[in-house]
Amino acid sequence: MTAIADSSGTIRVAVSAVIFSLRAGADGDRLMLPLVRRTREPHLDSWALPGGWLDPAEDLDAAASRTLAKTTALKPSYLEQLYTFGDVDRSPTRAVSIIYWALLRSDLVDAQQGAADAPENVEWFDVDDLPTLAFDHNRIVEYALWRLRNKVGYSWIGAGLLPDEFTLTELREVYETVLGRRLDPSNFRRLLEGSDELEPTESFRTGKHRPARLFRLAPAD
Predict the structure, then answer these.
(1) Contact, 151 vs 157, CB < 8 A?
(2) How far is the C-alpha of 174 from the C-alpha of 176, rounded, in Å?
(3) Is 14 within 8 Å of 1 (Cβ atoms)?
(4) CA distance 141 to 128
(5) CB–CB of 104/21 below 8 Å?
(6) Residue 97: count of CB within 10 angstroms of its CB
(7) Measured distance CA(2)–CA(59) in Å, rounded
(8) Cβ-based neighbour number of residue 103 at 10 Å
(9) What's the rounded Cα separation, in Å, for the pair 137 and 143?
(10) CA angle, 20 then 56 then 6, to 5°
(11) Phi-psi region for residue 45, left (φ > 0), alpha (ψ -120 to 50) or beta?
């Protein structure tokens, strides 16, 4: 959704979001995002980022959460303001969009999409295989993806794509999916040894191999 100037010349402001989640594909998990098909001009029937108008009495974070719930029925596990896009020529009329980027736990996507009031004009797309989007939304997604890939290089934000408790292997696989490359398991584990952002639990994941300890993000101070 993009803000446009009305007939009086007043510029309306919109809040939109790039939501990342992991979705199962034929060759493993893929980093994907939901898009909404536009139902009016400009760009009728084109895919666009979910969003909506900013209410004058509404905080930005509240607007981001509200518009996401209304347009996609999704409630992200991580939400952060990304950037403000307001180039003069980015839409047919003067437009400003405040963009958020969000992470949504993979185990919550299906439950939220299955809600009775979930919109029907929402589809998930691979971040590396997007259609031509409305306005400058392709550029916005590229910027959000760049920010995400940079941030996973120095933080454990990727855990926001996982359930509350996870194994180190699951966390490493998330980072490999986001970065698009393999990581050495031993080096990855060594990075964890000096971290105070992750803490071990007393629970283990059992399966065909030896039990794997579950970790979680440490509470914020």
Answers:
(1) yes
(2) 5
(3) yes
(4) 10
(5) yes
(6) 24
(7) 17
(8) 22
(9) 10
(10) 90
(11) left
CA dihedral 138, 143, 145, 150 (to 10 degrees): 170
Tokens of 144: 């959000």
Contact 14, 106 (CB under 8 A): no
The band of 84, judged by pLDDT with boundaries at 50, 70 and 90, is very high
Q: Which two tokens stand for residue 82?
A: 């990304």
pLDDT digits (tens, 9 = 90+) for 121-150: 899 999 999 999 999 999 999 999 999 999
The neighbour count for residue 78, using CB atoms within 10 Å, is 16
Instruction: Name the one residue in this structure whose structure tokens are 């930005």.
Output: 60
CA separation (Å) from 80 to 15, 61, 111?
12, 8, 23
Most confident of 8-22, 43-57, 191-205: 43-57
- Please state the φ and ψ torsions of residue 42, each to the nearest 5 degrees: -75, 165
